[in-house]
Amino acid sequence: MIAQLSERDYRADLQKLGAETEEKQAKLRLLKAGPRAEEVAVARTTIQKAEERLKFRKAQLEMMESLFTRNMVSRKEYVDAQEDVAVRSKELDEARGRLKVLLAGSRPEEIEAIEAELARLKAQRAYVEEQLQRVRIVSPIAGVITTPKLKEKVGQHVKKGDLIAEVHELRTVTAEIAIPEKEISDVR
């Protein structure tokens, strides 16, 4: 091993990705589980209340209509009663619509989106784990480190592609040596 780079950032990324993955998995389980029985019960109770209010307002409207035909209430009071019935009818329709949406559950597109997000997080996690494996700088060959003053590089920032150290293989060494002419006969 020639050097070990800091792995702090990679470890932090892994923790963050783990938390995001857990969050998305919980959301996916929630979408697949559908509505709780309590939510459905509340929606049905809301519909019953809306039906009762509408029934009461319709009875009031009938009474107002009979009084209006005998000129015992003003036109405004009669129109207000009609508007009130219309509003209560819309409230009932909305409550029924909310129950229908609740019972329909999650849209398949929502589930697919969460699953795609989980796949992205998984790929990102694999990438970070691969980068974490690369924080240990090792030489692909056995040999001797020939970089002068290597200890002075400890603690320095290095960028991708920076030369950290040179390693020379000792199996085949080529050397250039200056030899005087009178000693050349001794070289083999």
Along the chain, the helix and strand elements come as: EHHHHEEE
If helices are DSSP runs of H or I spanning 4 or more residues, what is the number of helices?
4
- Mind summarizing the main beta sheet? 2 strands, antiparallel
- Cα end-to-end separation: 37 Å
Q: What is the count of structural domains?
A: 1
**SS class:** mainly alpha
- Computed over alpha carbons, the radius of gyration is 40 Å
Residue share in helix: 55-70%
Mean pLDDT across all amino acids: 87
Overall geometric form: rod-shaped
Fold blueprint:
Layout: E1 3-4, H1 8-33, H2 37-69, H3 75-104, H4 108-133, E2 136-137, E3 144-145, E4 167-168
Antiparallel strand pairs: 1-2, 3-4
Helix pairs in contact: 1-4, 2-3
Write up this protein.
This protein is mostly helical. It is about 60% helix and about 5% strand. The chain contains four helices and four strands; from the N terminus they run βααααβββ. The strands form two sheets. A two-stranded antiparallel ribbon has the order 1-2. It is rod-shaped and about 145 Å long.
Defining traits:
mainly alpha; 4 helices; 4% strand; 188 residues
Compose a concise summary of this entry.
Helix content is 61%, strand content 4%.
